[in-house]
Specification:
Distance between the termini: 20 Å
Mean pLDDT: 95
Strand order of the largest sheet: 2-1-15
Number of helices: 5
Strand content: 15-25%
Low-confidence stretches: none
Structural class: alpha/beta
Length: 259
């Protein structure tokens, strides 16, 4: 099956999940302190407002106290024009999250279940007909094989990426800026040899988790050299604080499923 080319950053809807009080128990590689629930809500609301200003209709799902990381709603599923894929998650404390987004997605698109292995949405970068997928602690070969079979039937090529040390997810280190351009940390530069790659300034590697949404590039606040780099490239940059999500190894892309 083939499909018409589509800009992988053009969206009309987004699903978000309200932060739960249990978010203070969320997973993190390094403990830099618990997030503030009050501040998380404020930053989350500002993020939602930017998506709406970019032209998206947002749908806020209720908080889930049983799943501390459920605010990172991108990880349990992904959506392409042909439909959604509901993933299986490797982290035991997140295993129930895919079922919590299934009903919401089914209102808009057909949903296909991943039958084997594990995949996190944070490891999936859609660039158009080519989809890059990181092999990480959260995404394994069995999961990518199962996902690859699904998307191949929709006309996509899935490309596995061996992850550099220090990156939780693939999109921790890269973002799609347009059909020809990827923002990436230096160790991922060769992965995107078919693209023009803008490399993150030294010391601002955490800014790699940007999100192109329609006509804007959404960038985490606090990375002035990256903002200048994107400004010089002609991108319409908006910044917003995600300090509380970053305490839990999260970022801009994790906080919504855009489709």
């Amino acid at each position: 099956m083939s499909h018409d080319p589509f800009p992988a950053y053009r969206f009309s809807r987004a699903l978000l999940r309200e932060p739960a009080a249990s978010v203070v128990c969320g997973l993190r590689a390094v403990d830099r302190g618990d997030p503030s629930l009050e501040l998380f809500h404020l930053e989350h609301a500002a993020y939602r407002a930017i998506l709406e200003n970019a032209g998206l209709e947002t749908h806020l799902l209720p908080a889930l106290s049983d799943w501390p990381d459920s605010v990172f709603v991108e990880d349990p599923a992904m959506v392409l024009p042909e439909g959604a894929i509901l993933f299986r998650m490797a982290a035991p404390s997140r295993a129930g999250e895919p079922d919590t987004v299934r009903e919401a997605l089914q209102k808009f698109v057909p949903v296909t279940l991943l039958e084997n292995g594990h995949v996190d949405g944070g490891d999936i970068l859609v660039t158009g007909p080519k989809i890059f997928a990181g092999l990480s602690k959260r995404t394994d070969k069995d999961g990518l094989d199962a996902m690859g079979a699904i998307v191949a039937g929709w006309g996509y090529e899935l490309v596995g990426v061996d992850m550099p040390e220090g990156l939780l997810h693939l999109k921790t280190g890269c973002a799609l800026l347009d059909e020809e351009t990827i923002l990436a940390v230096e160790p991922l530069k060769e992965t995107f040899s078919d693209f023009r790659v803008l490399t993150l300034p030294e010391g601002e590697e955490a800014a790699a988790n940007a999100v192109r949404v329609n006509d804007i590039v959404l960038l985490a606040a606090g990375y002035p050299r990256t903002e200048e780099l994107l400004d010089r490239g002609g991108y319409n940059v908006r910044t917003t604080k995600v300090s509380q999500a970053q305490l839990l190894d999260g970022g801009l892309s994790c906080l919504s499923i855009r489709f």
